[in-house]
Give the backbone structure.
Amino acid sequence: MISLDAGVVTDFDDDYDELAVTTDGPPLPEGRYLDRELSWLAFNNRVLELAEDPSLPVLERANFLAIFASNLDEFFMVRVAGLKRRILTDLAVPTNVGRRPTDVLEDISVKAHELQARHSAAWRNLVSPALADEGIRIVAYSELDEADRENLREIFSQQIFPVLMPLAVDPAHPFPYISGLSLNLSVRVRNSKTGKEEFARLKVPQVLNRFIRVDQRESVNELRFIPLEDLIANHLGDLFPGMEVVEHHVFRVTRNEDVEVEEDETENLLQALEKELLRRRFGPPIRLEITDDMDAVTLELLVRELDITEQEVYRLPWPLDLGGLFDLTRIPRPDLKYPKHVPTTSVALLPPEPNAKPDIFKAISRGDILLHHPYESFATSVQAFLEQAAADPHVLAIKQTLYRTSGDSPIVEALIDAAEAGKQVLALVEIKARFDEQANISWARKLEKAGVHVVYGLVGLKTHCKLALVIRQEKGRLKSYSHIGTGNYNPKTSRIYEDLGLLTADDQVGKDLTRLFNELSGYAIEKKFKRLLVAPLHLRKGLLKRIADEAENARKGLPSGIRIKLNSIVDEAIIDGLYRASQAGVPIDIWVRGICSLKPGQEGLSETIRVRSILGRYLEHSRIFSFHNNGDPQVFIGSADMMHRNLDRRVEALVRLVDPDHLREIDGLFELAMSDAVTSWALDEAGDWIRSVVDAEGVHLIDLQDELMQQISRRKRPGTTR
């Protein structure tokens, strides 16, 4: 379900630009937007509800607890940090609901404290006991007998003690730098000879496993683990020989890790970004998590040295940092996880004969192919497309955008292979992709060394669109093969992110992508695209025009309808357009994973708007924009959410689907997602998310992702009946 890289799934750019509110038509009421920060916290609350759900496999529930923690970490590092920066720099720009950042921070603090307490309780009272029932226990050192302790002492001495680095705090040793998100032990010791007390900080090494097996001889069905920090805390005498340990407590600091690069003030973007990444490590603290047994003396020291306010202190039960629960998901207990699902190869990519060798280009030439990951394999579709292009002697050029990719990316290797084979290869690498900056810099340099033409997009804009263009020579002419997707070219996340992609040999799409790549890599200014909507110049305008057309059709008594699926919707102009369409009577369905600033069901404003959210084993990541258009549907898929950053400060691209089968497939997706028979969350008129899990008879509702797995796995090879 929810992102990888430890589960982060967020939309965290600083989006408090001047509000893009439409002025067409009569004025709309004040207070018509939900606060985006609180809406994001409501999203993470939905993640927490999955962890609390006893019907889910227990290791998946532990995974959702870890995802919640990881999400909240990034929320503080970016969004809370951004609000604090505005306050410190006296930027009085209001939030999307017109409130001061200081007021929003207070609300965030109240809600975040509540959620973190509930998160801890979910672990302590629900998930931990459920794991114990299945033979997996997280134990405290105090629960162990002498034999267990002797075994762990050997592990500590041989594998942990040599890595530890206690740091004293005294006139000769200033208070040490506390790295962001690291677990730490605060230790107060007393000199047995002088009676003087000293303070030391001990970092829990992040290179070691968070949970240590108590007994390596136990079977996989009966496992006990002890948190690493608890094992260290009970061997502090080895680290401070001759001293009496008076107090020890666990704490954790979250820092501002936002990155800002002023591109117009530097000639070398890579060097500027690398300097900014170094600065990120030393951002100011914005949250201090402590165990609830921490004494007042230690807390006062930490608050003073870290310059933390009381509002930023979070007292929590042991253990801190439940993001460490990701480690438990590696336990080989498939009976405690979602049933394994193996993606199928898209039937459109299968050769007509069962034993024939697949040919991606021939398959695409037969007609547009709509891919749906992870139900359909990324490896046998998008990855195979680029690998075949790299090896094909008839391919002359490959052009591709890279926003996030995996550490051992076969996509990047395919581009390198193509360049080394003498093909023209262009890679547009977005080195400002948040928290992937360093990895993308490394990829960019590796690609350049292989002879790939690497560019970094347009100054002041992130390139977020997901595009690949292959130019192939066929029968004396050049033919374009294109891929436009909703997700990154990342084989790892493609297995847990739900995304759509279009493979097409359509000549017009090829021309559109050629113009767009020329604009991104050169100085061309191309404003006309036939099957694409491109941000920042035309995407918002294009969508607003289609929304207005639906409203006009409704006023004329013609059929109308709007269906949108996305990760977040915040943009005021888009929301106001949808409000006005609703006032005209247009039925509107919004399927959103995360932030939603739109208020549905408001009398006289949004009575025809329904909002649903679906979370599950896969992270819903695709973006779809569907307009009834009086019976001639206009349906787009692509990379853009409805946020200021996507519409104003990013290069985004949507492609229009034209195949009638694809239009029916998209329509079926919405029918399923908005059905009362499917488990989901509904946003009500009060701004609350209400989860539906069972029907009136108490029968569990359909899981949309399970249903799609079954539907897609039943698809047959063209021309076959079984």
Remarks:
- The radius of gyration is 27 Å.
- The first helix runs from residue 36 to 52.
- Residues 1-23, 261-267 have pLDDT under 50 and may be disordered.
- The chain has three domains: 142-332, 347-527, 534-713.
